[in-house]
Amino acid sequence: MITYGYLDTDQQSDALALWNASVEFDRMTAALFDEKVFEDDAVERRLRFAAMYGDRTIGIAIGSTRSPRTNCGCIKLFCVHPDFRRQGIGTELVRRAESAFRTFGHVAVRLGESPPNYLQPGIDIRSTDTLAFVDACGFSRFGETQNLDVNLTSAELETEHDVQRLAQEGIRVERASMETRGVAQDFLKDAFPAWVDEIAPTFENTPTSLHIATCSAQVVAFAAYDANNIGRGWFGPMGTQPSYRGRGIGKVLLKRCLADLLRQGRTTATIPWVGPVDFYSKTVGAVVSRTFIRFEKLIRQ
Questions:
Q1: Is residue 283 one of the residues assigned to a domain?
Q2: Are 45 and 122 part of one and the same domain?
Q3: 147 has which bridge partners?
Q4: Residues 273/147, Cβ–Cβ less than 8 Å
Q5: Model pTM?
Q6: How many CB atoms neighbour CB 287 within 10 A?
Q7: How far apart (Å, rounded) are the C-alpha atoms in residues 138 and 136?
Q8: CATH of the domain at 11
Q9: Could you report the per-residue pLDDT of 260-301, keeping only the tens digit for each?
């Protein structure tokens, strides 16, 4: 008999095994699964839905109250074991998630995109069964986004000349530290408030996985890595104050972050949920590695 309830921490290993047996892409380690599910403040227990067959977890739908759109929830992870598909389990899990989001006052639900703690910014275009399922659930497509990969062994990551050039212009490039954390956070709150929470974990890493540019002791640009999906070689986010753009600051910060990832022993870095593909392609030879379709469903008029 199939029953429904909430996913608790004592089911972590069972749920992780389910996830890795059910997905073609984005298999996770135990640490990464915890980061996505149990360490995310926006994922409350009442949004962690599980389908059970006896004491075995056979399906999950993990909801988050955080989304780029106001009054919108997100189903950041969902899967059903291949042996139990086409029995209405996935549909019931999504229905329960939608019902819960209505109690939060949300008017819509998106899939995957729950920054700053997300695994996929949508549904991979190669996931044919999943695409068919979410279409059948009434979700609408409203855009696409890409992940890029950078070959760290062949990318040109030298920055010393540009660092010296910027210094002559009064711009200092450095790794952020606990001493500069306050001014970095103030800059983000003012210029890029959506990324304040995503940057926070970089100060817990050793070394700090955040590089900044300052002018007159004020931060004017930043770039980060290992802020989300820690340990998977993810770069971002990054941003430059508009009045300082066009000076090559972003290129320097990007390359310094990628050089750090290369020193970790990585050969490839991922730049997720990309806007300016051309910038990354020209600067470090990044290529599109994955394309995601973005979905949304209105659950309240």
A1: no
A2: yes
A3: 290
A4: yes
A5: 0.91
A6: 12
A7: 5
A8: 3.40.630.30
A9: 999 999 999 999 999 779 999 999 999 999 999 999 999 986
Using one digit for the tens of pLDDT, what is the confidence trace for 143-173?
999 999 999 999 999 999 999 999 999 999 9
Q: How far is CA 58 from CA 88, 192, 277, 296, in A?
A: 12, 40, 38, 25
At 276 the pLDDT is 75
Q: What is the rounded CA–CA span in Å between residue 235 and residue 270? A: 6
User: Which value, in Å, is the radius of gyration of the alpha carbons in the chain?
Assistant: 21
CB atoms within 10 A of CB 38: 16
pLDDT at 98 > cutoff 90: yes
Same structural domain for residues 59 and 161? no
Q: What's residue 301's pLDDT?
A: 63
Cβ 232 vs Cβ 271: under 8 Å: no
Q: Which domain, by its residues, includes 72?
A: 2-144+293-298
> What's the gap between Cα 152 and its chain centre?
21
Q: Which two tokens stand for residue 35?
A: 């980061």
- Report the relative pairing of strands 218-225 and 235-240 from DSSP bridges: antiparallel
Q: Is residue 285, in this structure, part of any structural domain at all?
A: no
Residue with the bigger pLDDT between 230 and 271: it is: 271
Amino acid (1-letter code) at residue 112: G
Statement to judge: residues 42 and 135 lie in one domain: yes
- With contact defined as beta carbons under 8 Å apart, do 67 and 80 qualify? no
Assigned token pair, 200: 């926070």
Same domain, yes or no: 22 and 93: yes
Q: What is the pLDDT of residues 103-119, one digit of tens each?
A: 999 999 999 999 889 99
The model's confidence at residue 69, banded by pLDDT at 50, 70 and 90, is confident
What Cα–Cα distance (Å) separates residue 230 from each residue in 23, 119, 123, 236, 293? 20, 11, 21, 11, 24
Number of folded domains in the chain?
2
